Amino acid sequence: xxxxxxxxxxNLRELMLKRVSSMDEKALERLHDxxxxxxxxxxxxxxxxxxxxxxxxxxxxxxxxxxRAYRSRDRQS
Length: 77
Fold this sequence. Notes:
By secondary structure, this protein is mainly alpha-helical. The chain has one domain. Helices cover 73% and strands 0% of the residues. The protein has helices spanning 12-21, 25-56, 63-76. It starts with 11 loop residues before the first helix and ends with a helix.
């Protein structure tokens, strides 16, 4: 069963601040974990965009050969 997206209230910041200020410690810790997860996802998206731009610009042209050479050297040890 899919959930229906709810409209974002115009006073979202005010509502969220009230809600956070009334949370117990466990709920606040969960919210903190969710905030960290969201930040991690945003950073991954940004890094992915940067990597794609670098790859398009040809900055990773020799990467596959360098990885192959490193792995080959590692096997010979």
